[in-house]
Amino acid sequence: MATLHLQKHVDYIKSLDKKSDFDSLVTEHLRMSGAYWGLTAMDLMGHLADMDANEIVAWLLKCQHDCGGFGGNHGHDPHVIYTLNAVQILALFDKLNAVDADKIASYIAGLQNEDGSFAGDEWGEIDTRFSYCAICCLSLLKRLDKIDLKKATDFVARCKNFDGGFGCTPGGESHAGQIFCCVAALAIAGALHHVDKDLLGWWLCERQVKSGGLNGRPEKLPDVCYSWWVLSSLVIMNRVHWIDKKKLEEFILDCQDSENGGISDRPDDAVDVFHTFFGVAGLSLLEYPGVKAIDPAYALPVDIVDRIFYGQENGFTDKL
Amino acid sequence: MDREEGEDWEPLRARAAWADVVPIPQDDGPRPVVPIAYTDQFREVMDYFRAILAKDERSSRALELTAEVIALNSANYTVWHFRRLVLEALRSNLEEELDFIESVAENNFKNYQIWHHRRWVAQKLGVGAVSGELEFTEIVLLDDAKNYHAWSHRQWVLQELGGWEGELDFCSRLLEKDVYNNSAWNQRYFVVTKSPLIGGLQAMREHEVHYCVDAIKAAPMNESPWRYLRGLFKGDQDALAHNPLVVAACIEEIRKDASCVQALSLLVDLLCAGFRPTPSDTELLHQPVSSPADLASNVCTHLENVDAMRARYWAWRRSLLPSTTPVS
Ligand SMILES: [Zn+2]
């Protein structure tokens, strides 16, 4: 019976931070996301204190542009994804007061289109992923009043398909990653009435394949990262008991590198920080012992979310 | 960075046509955290591009320079944007621009900038662009049936410029090639519900039920057509439960394979929506039952075994059934 090699994963993530070839593991332009994945995994495993908060925050602040948005690294264009990741990292370190929330909020508000959708950056690609980034980020900054939230959620609702799932834009095929973004955005915005929970819940639980892992669309291979996207949506909709949690847990544990730490997409593949985070986060949602609870919508540890919204470390209520 | 640096590339500083331009080097800040290893060619092209951008020079040499930048880094936002400004200023032939995009896009169909640019050109060309755009996306989709950008572009073309006439056949062609292609099923639903030419979901329902039932017979475990079938009756469960073709297909698949989860699951839905089984239907699972609710309950129990991973889903479905005949 496999168990979680927690200390090895901690060491693996710490080694990434020190390696000079970090960029070969996490593409340079999305280093902000890499930092968010690694740091959140560290916090879930109870080892955030091993990381140098001051150094990371100093680097992070250099990625902010005059417009308020953050780039994926120093010298890279701002994007709503990295802006959310930066705010999530600041939340982890309890350093949200190091930035001007209004400035970030005005950057994000500027990305909203007339139809309620969001562009990812000034060049205009539209995707419900960006709706999630905008809503999640503004909620963490307590600035949801800076956008037209009704229009934002109405746009997300327009991306709902006949199978109950959601796509990138109206008419786009359902995909588990997209479903997480839409369901979590609607949950944060208090608009879950747009979700057909029974129909979508069934679609999501059909993602579980014989090996116990979850895939992202029909006829695709299972992948550890869907442990997060499928599971978080099911948790938000209170339908997580519809899948076989034990078999999923075994699948995730099978994807560990038991020698050098880290988690891969499928058993015996090469590990990376992305799948390490989603594997640990998936185990967190499965209430694996020794892993802190993660909030399924904000994708941050529950105690961090509680600190932001209730000013205390211990959660006492289910916001969703 | 896309490395397409030619051996015989002539530096810009050596070209007579560029003699009057002073290149502007990148300002990396006092101490860049991540020193980026640019090649000399990349650095020089970018330095000249910065100079042209600063002058806002919308000339044919500027257009050629943007092509050089794009060849080195097709994900650079700024260059595509500037290229559009130049194309407008020069009133360039946009048909040629489509050829340019195709030459750049080769093996690069996941780059948003290229699709965004293509949409801009197609919008400018208007209705005349329809057949070319449908052909282009078809080529991409035949190679990568799940390419999201291509589907998105195709849906945009249909809705903005038209070209719906052949779209249902296009979906059929893709499904003939691979009946499991969920993206093609999604597109089929898009056509049936959005095409202005075929009268909408209601008008197309019988036709589509026939199509769908054939697809189910070909691959009964394929979840896509089963979902599509339900989609055809969205908001009209009553019509679903009383459609003879649907009912017959469902029963037939269960007779062929009593562990066909998709068929059993549809049977539960049909029973819940008012389908009255014949006496021979009720014996499907080799257990005589006295009411549709009893049959539904038996099917759910059966599903808890054959689809054990989702046992709790089926138990939940069973719990929603109207009270069944007590077991004697
Ligand atoms: Zn993955």
TrEMBL record, chain A:
<keyword id="KW-0677">Repeat</keyword>
<comment type="function">
    <text>Catalyzes the transfer of a geranylgeranyl moiety from geranylgeranyl diphosphate to both cysteines of proteins with the C-terminal sequence -XXCC, -XCXC and -CCXX.</text>
</comment>
<dbReference type="InterPro" id="IPR045089">
    <property type="entry name" value="PGGT1B-like"/>
</dbReference>
<keyword id="KW-0637">Prenyltransferase</keyword>
<dbReference type="Pfam" id="PF00432">
    <property type="entry name" value="Prenyltrans"/>
</dbReference>
<keyword id="KW-0479">Metal-binding</keyword>
<keyword id="KW-0862">Zinc</keyword>
<dbReference type="InterPro" id="IPR026873">
    <property type="entry name" value="Ptb1"/>
</dbReference>
<feature type="domain" description="Prenyltransferase alpha-alpha toroid">
    <location>
        <begin position="4"/>
        <end position="299"/>
    </location>
</feature>
<protein>
    <recommendedName>
        <fullName>Geranylgeranyl transferase type-2 subunit beta</fullName>
        <ecNumber>2.5.1.60</ecNumber>
    </recommendedName>
</protein>
<dbReference type="InterPro" id="IPR008930">
    <property type="entry name" value="Terpenoid_cyclase/PrenylTrfase"/>
</dbReference>
<dbReference type="InterPro" id="IPR001330">
    <property type="entry name" value="Prenyltrans"/>
</dbReference>
<comment type="similarity">
    <text>Belongs to the protein prenyltransferase subunit beta family.</text>
</comment>
<keyword id="KW-0808">Transferase</keyword>
Automatic annotation (TrEMBL), chain B:
<comment type="similarity">
    <text>Belongs to the protein prenyltransferase subunit alpha family.</text>
</comment>
<dbReference type="InterPro" id="IPR002088">
    <property type="entry name" value="Prenyl_trans_a"/>
</dbReference>
<keyword id="KW-0808">Transferase</keyword>
<keyword id="KW-0637">Prenyltransferase</keyword>
<protein>
    <recommendedName>
        <fullName>Protein farnesyltransferase/geranylgeranyltransferase type-1 subunit alpha</fullName>
        <ecNumber>2.5.1.58</ecNumber>
        <ecNumber>2.5.1.59</ecNumber>
    </recommendedName>
</protein>
<dbReference type="Pfam" id="PF01239">
    <property type="entry name" value="PPTA"/>
</dbReference>
<keyword id="KW-0460">Magnesium</keyword>
<keyword id="KW-0677">Repeat</keyword>
